[in-house]
Design brief:
By secondary structure, the chain is α/β, with parallel strands linked by helices. The protein is built from 11 helices and 8 strands. A 6-stranded mixed β-sheet has the order 3-2-1-4-6-5.
Length: 255
């Protein structure tokens, strides 16, 4: 199968923890797509990475708020293409065949937020396509940076971005073709975000490989009950459920 070529898109991720899982997410994208460049922002400059990945040294990200600040402030300095695809360890490309060239007509696309019904529901930043125009607009003095960064873009500053910079947000229908997070669409999508979607999308075995690599599994425990339910099938179901329960109770690193 021929790989999708996206010479105008940079794929990027930023992490100080869960780096093996983050690299696996980037590799899942690289396996299907030829990007202009692949960037990993991390404070581990000596990290062993695939040859396609360029490490961008940063100060340690000590919190999710640090991550938001980096995404809003620093991406524009390093992304040299017209668009970038932001991925995280729990959100990446599922099926490159679902790519639509019209995605590049927009400045921001992320999965829809079902909790909002005011029309400003696009969207999730964990797996998102952003234009350089948007990256620069987020550095405008009128932009109000806040955490989480996707809410800052998609809700707090959306009207200002549209009016001051003519930023184009994808419609909900387009977002549903691009990715899913808290609500699953009727058909296949280009990508996804959310640990709670990994078992249905990737299977329990692949999820478990990723889970065992996590050095900071706290985000998994937010959805502990759902994950344990999803792990109820398969040859190793009871052992995995027991191990995750132990990790959840003790806050231990998966082994």
């Amino acid at each position: 199968m021929n790989k999708l070529s996206l010479p105008g898109v940079t794929v990027c991720a930023a992490a100080s923890v869960n780096l093996p899982a983050t690299l696996a997410a980037l590799q899942a994208c690289l396996d299907q797509i030829d990007f202009a460049e692949c960037l990993l922002f991390t404070d581990k400059p000596d990290l062993s990475v695939p040859p396609q990945v360029r490490v961008v040294p940063i100060p340690r990200l000590r919190s999710a708020a640090d991550y938001s600040a980096l995404i809003l402030r620093d991406l524009a300095e390093h992304v040299r293409t017209d668009h970038c695809l932001v991925v995280q360890w729990d959100g990446f490309v599922l099926d490159s065949a679902q790519w639509d060239p019209s995605f590049l007509e927009f400045d921001y696309i992320g999965a829809r937020w079902p909790q909002f019904d005011d029309g400003h529901d696009v969207g999730n930043g964990g797996f998102s396509l952003r234009s350089r125009k948007l990256l620069e607009a987020c550095r405008d003095s009128a932009f109000q940076p806040s955490h989480p960064e996707d809410i800052a873009i998609g809700r707090l500053n959306r009207s200002s971005l549209e009016q001051r910079h003519n930023i184009r947000f994808a419609s909900g229908a387009v977002a549903d073709l691009f990715a899913f997070e808290r609500s699953v669409g009727a058909g296949p999508t280009f990508g996804f975000h959310g640990i709670f979607n990994m078992i249905p999308a990737l299977g329990a075995d692949r999820f478990w490989e990723i889970y065992r690599s996590l050095d900071e599994p706290g985000s998994a425990f937010v959805d502990y009950r759902l994950l344990v339910t999803q792990l109820s099938h398969g040859q190793h179901a009871w052992r995995r459920r027991l191990k995750m329960t132990f990790d959840w109770l003790k806050g231990a690193r998966p082994a």
